[in-house]
Amino acid sequence: MSFPAYLDACCLVPINLTDVLLRLAETQTYRPLWSERVLNEVERNLPRVSSMTPERARRRVRVMRTQFRDALVTDYESLVPSMTNEQKDRHVLAAAVRGGAAVLVTANTKDFPYEATAPYDIGVVTPDEFLLDQLDLHPEQTLRCLKELVADRRRPPEDLFSFLPKLSKTVPDFCAAVHRRVGE
């Protein structure tokens, strides 16, 4: 079984970051986890922060549900009151606990202090840290995913070096590490 990682909504809204994360999950370097509440948040926020229409946002989330059927964590709501992290994100930690996540991937690490996650043996990492770990542990799969991602982009066509600056808005250290590995 792959390494279980709970993906917070903030990791699933930026399209480039999401593409990388989900392509890696398809190679089974890790198993993504999320809740219906997180997916609803993604669907609600995509049109607000991008040019994506509500219909395209619904379709994107529907594809995520279909492609990663075992990612959905359910029956975590009873754990929410016992969580001690930031109140608005207690549902995230509760779902990560119920799903058996080894790590919670979020840009909002301050909302998940060590004291709140340590009892459940869940690490909290940024998307940058998570992808750097993936690159270190699975360099071939990670680089292949990136190359396939840019090869699939046709409007406009891209290569790795035109894509990395866009991705670096969310994961700058990872992009720098990829750039060092593949050279120019």
Automatic annotation (TrEMBL):
Q: Where is the PIN domain?
A: 16-110
Q: Ranges for the VapC50 C-terminal domain?
A: 127-180
Pfam families (alphabetical): PIN_3, VapC50_C
Q: Which InterPro entries match?
A: PIN-like_dom_sf, PIN_dom, VapC50_C
Q: Give yes or no: UniProt keyword Secreted.
A: no
Biological source species: Actinopolyspora erythraea
* Entry GO MF terms: DNA binding
Keywords in alphabetical order, please.
DNA-binding, Hydrolase, Magnesium, Metal-binding, Nuclease
- Under what name is this protein listed? DNA-binding protein
Keyword DNA-binding applies: yes
